[in-house]
Amino acid sequence: MNISVSAEKIGGSSNFRFSTDKKVIELGKNLINNLISSMKVAQIYDSNNKVFQEHLKGFDDNLREIFRSEGEAVINVTANHIFFNKHRLPMDFASYHTFHSLMDGFLGSEIGEVGFEESITREELTRFVFVFSKSLGDPSKSLEDIEEELEGQGVVRVRLQEPRGGAEDIQGTSNLRKVGKQMYTKSIMLLKETVGDAPSPRKVQTRLVRKLVQNIIDAVIVDETYMLALTNIKNHYDYTLNHSLNVCVLSTALGYRMGMERKRLSDLGMAALFHDIGKIFIPEEILTKPAKLTDEEFEIMKNHPIKGAEMLTQIKRFRKLPVRAIVASLEHHRGIDQSGYPRLFFKKELNLFSKIIAIADVFDAMTTPRIYQKTPFKRDEALGMMMKASGTKFDPLLLKAFINMVGVYPIGCVVLLNTGELAVVMEANQDPDYCQYPKVKLITEKTGKKIDGPLINLAHPASDGTQRFIVKTVDPFKYGIDVTDYF
C-alpha cells in the first residue's frame, strides 16, 4: 500500500512518496537478521558445515521471497537508521543491538549501500557472506578493498556504494524540511478549525483530524529527528492546540519506536490530539490565570479529563474514534501508581496509550513558556525531573525509550561546549555508549559572536584533532536564541 503525503489542508505542495507496507518492513528485518546470523556462523564454521548451510538457506530463501514480491533487495545505512528498499526499518528493543552492530560495520568500512541482484546464486551468496564476515568493520579495509576481495572471489552480483548524505537522499527528507514548518503551523490552524472553536461534539471533524494524524505519522517515518525538532515551536496564544500537536508528534514517534503498526499509531495519534480536549470546558480566567491556582480553581481544572472523556463519547462519528482515545483523555494525569487525578474507586492499570501520552504531555508542558511560568525548564532538566518520577508517575521502560528517542541532551537544547562555543543539539546519538555526544550545530564562536556554523558529531574529533564535549546546557532565552530558527 503506497502512502502519499498530501498537503491538502496542511499547506504547501509535498511531492515525496513512500510506502509503510508492514510485509515489506518484515521482509527487511528478516533480511538483516539472516545476514548477521550467517556472518556470525561463517566466523566459526566452514562453508560445508551443516549449521552454516542452514543459516545460509534462510538467508537465500529470504532473498528469493523479496525478489518475488519486490523485484530488488537493497540495504541502505545512515548514521542512525537502516533502510530496506527505501523503507526505514523501525528499531525496537529486541533489534537495537543487532541493527547497530550492522550499522557500525557498514559505516566503519565506508559502506552505505548493499544491493543484491536477482540472479545471484547460492554459491555466490556463500562467498559474499565469508568475505563480509571477515572484512566488514575492519578499520584496515576500505570499501575498495572489500570490493576487490569480492571480485576476486567471483562475487559480481552484489553492489556496494559509499554512504549517502543521510536519510534525505533515501526518503525525500529534504522535501519534508522545505514544507515541515508550514505543515506544522497549518496543522494548528486545522485543529483550531475542527476542535477548538466550540465545545460541541457535533463540530469535531474526526475525518479531517485523522488525515492530519496520518500526515504526522508519515512525516515521523520520513524524518523523526526533524519532527521532534519542530516540537520546540511554542505558541503562547494557542497553547492548548500547540501542546496537543506536540504531544501527538512525540507520542507517535515513541509508538513507532516501540514497533507499533500503522493502525495503532493512527489511534495513538488521535488519542494524543484529543487528550486535553476537556480544557475547552474550563473557564478562560482559570486557564490563563498568571498566578498559582487556588484550591477551588485547581479542583475545577482537575475536571478536564472527565469532561474530555464525556465529550468524546458524544462525538457524532464516535465509531470512527478509538475507544483508547477516550480512555487516554480520562487517564493521562493519573500516573501508574494511581496517585493522580481523577481518583477512581478501584485500581486499574493504565492503558498503554495513556502511559505514552502522559510522558509526552508532561515533557512538552514542562518545556513550554506559560502565563504563570515565563521561563520553562530546559529540556534536559525536564527529563531529569521526570526520571525522579519513574516507576510512580511514569512507566520506567517507556520513559527510558522516550529519553533514548529525544536524547539525554534533547533535540533543541542549547549547550555550552568545552571550547567556549554555543551549539544547538540537532540529533541525538542513538548509541547508549555515546548518548552524551549528540550531533550539534555551532551557533557562536568562543568570543560569543553568532555564526551559522557547521554540523558536528561530538562522538568524533574534529579534522584538526579538537575533541569537543558538552559542559552544560544553557537557557536560550537568556541569550535571545530561538532554537526553531536552526531547524
What class would the helix/strand composition place it in?
Answer: alpha+beta
Q: Going across the biggest sheet, name each strand in turn.
A: 5-4-3-6-7
Query: Which percent band covers the strand fraction?
Result: 5-15%
Q: In which range does the helix fraction lie?
A: 40-55%
The arrangement of helices and strands along the chain is EEHHEEEHEHHEHHHHHHHHHHHHHEEEEE
Shape: globular
Total tally of structural domains: 3
CATH H level of the largest domain: which superfamily? Answer: Hypothetical protein af1432
CATH class of the largest domain: Mainly Alpha
Instruction: Give unreliable regions as ranges.
Output: 1-20, 165-172
Find the count of extended strands (DSSP E, 2+ residues).
Answer: 12
Oligomer: single chain
Arithmetic mean pLDDT: 82
Radius of gyration based on Cα positions: 25 Å
The biggest sheet, with number of strands, parallel, antiparallel or mixed sense and barrel status, is:
5 strands, antiparallel
CATH topology of the largest domain: Hypothetical protein af1432
CATH architecture of the largest domain: Orthogonal Bundle
**Tally of helical runs:** 18
Distance from N terminus to C terminus (CA atoms, Å) equals 31 Å
